[in-house]
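Tokens for F-box domain-containing protein. Go.
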Amino acid sequence: MQPDIIPNKRKSRSSRKDRCQQSPLLSGLPDELAISCLMRIARVEHPNIRLVCKRWNQLLSGNYYYSLRKRSGMAEEWVYIFKRDNDQKLTWHAFDPVNRIWKSLPPVPSEYSVAVGFGCAVLNGCYLYLLGGKDPVRGPMRRVIFYNARINKWLRVPDMLHKRYFFGSCVINNCLFVAGGECEGIHRTLRSAEVYDPNRNRWFCIAEMSAGMVPSTGIVYDGKWFLKGLNSHRQVISEVYLLASKTWSTASDEMVTGLRNPSISFDGQLYSTDCRDGCKIRVYNRETGSWTRFMDTRRHLGSSRALEVAALVSLNGKLCVIRNNMSITLIDITDPTTVIEVDSARMWETFARKWQHRSFMANLWSTVAGCNLKTHIMHCQVLQV
């Protein structure tokens, strides 16, 4: 299935006649007004209202309903995370920021339940892609699947051109780019790169990197894709993909050398964590070409694995720090060019914890024992529906 909004085909006379004979969405109201009412229902209630009747289910299974929500500013952003549990099984969860709750989701497709080194990206704001990776039995994969948040289903798209795992991926102009990684064989560290165009539902090769790389961090900034990782000799290297010329070149300026994982390009600025628990944030100053301290909460949580930052994401126009214990810290950034080296603790709001119902001693023990925590978040994305 091609993951794009496809314009509705011209209706035949018979289909228009059948539609006129259907019962209204809401009794006593024309469908246009009924849809205007239904699209105001909170996203958390969508699974329930699908069960009301066949027409409501059909409405919420199509793109028209969600495109109206988006145009009207009613679409909601949820955080989706993939994490590895103690038994090494992959699970995923969604965070509803309106009700401030985490929701467990059905099992991921079997081919990814024990896979490692796979990529994760979002296209069109509501399609969550899992691609590549390595299965412990079948080895490296080319497989690509995506989760459609509008219909709550996993679907397939064409496989990548090359098998790869532990590679870099990004989205530019709603196209999915992948580069580098590893594969089995003589030349394990890959130089190859490719791009998926959802409008054409095809993968295409792009220019190869100058050297094979297993990326450890990557960011799209100023229209360029920066990657930093290890080559086949385990040396740190950096490259940048220039979209305008469709070529790779080496990158060695301070922006790249100072880039740490996780990082995020947010509202035209580049941010990166400056400590293990994410209580310090750095910002890249383009004018001086250097990284500077942006904010420090002065409320450091600790250095355990549970409190380690897993991702920086943008949620409802604000910057969020997400940790392995599934706590989320919201940062209200108003003017990053002037709010530097100030007491910014009031700008931070911790508003979600996975185990908030447990006692104080249980939470304390979890923090103390966090260094032995085997669970960790592998990927984190935001979907809008």
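The chain has three domains: 13-71, 76-103+260-385, 108-256.
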